Amino acid sequence: MILTHKTGVLLHGTLAKDPVLKDVGQKQVLKFDVKAHSVKTGTGNWEGLYVQVNVWHGLDKWDGLLLKGDAVTVFARELKSREYNGKTYYDVDADDIQPGGMVIFRWMQNLIDLCTEAPAPPEPALTQEPTPFDEPAPVQTSLSGGQMYPGEDLADYAPRASQAAAPAGPAAGTPEADALIDDDADDLPF
């Protein structure tokens, strides 16, 4: 089926043969023929209309994915025709290719087959390295037994409780303390 419109061409059909990757000067092109239309003639023979499709971009994505007989829909800007030995040949430069449903199912099956053929993951090996699931090492909470330098004890560096300091002045409630308070009472502004 070929649909032409002022914005482009839609071509739907099956591949007549496997795609071929060809070198054209400095570039490469993927070429395949699409059987777009077939009609039974009065003699009982089938005549088909074939369109050559040229894929210039994304060759790495398409090479090896399409096979003879696959249904495809090709979008292009224009349908070109040329005469040669009394026959008309058609070709398009593909802008986009949409594979048919069975092609997609074949690709999915190939992907599933590749995944099931993958080797099993290796068995986990025991190591002596710590993991986040190991119990944490006990934390030392006292200074006894710890060393900062060989031969020294951390307890030597611990702050010590100081002894109660003796009062600097006379004890409260004694006549000497009362005398100090009385002497200061004259200096106060109130």
From TrEMBL:
Enumerate the residue ranges of region (Disordered). 118-190
Where is composition skewed (Low complexity) in this entry?
156-178
Composition-biased stretches, type Acidic residues, lie in 179-190
Note the InterPro entries from the entry.
NA-bd_OB-fold (IPR012340)
Annotated protein name in UniProt: Single-stranded DNA-binding protein
Organism ancestry: Bacteria, Bacillati, Bacillota, Clostridia, Eubacteriales
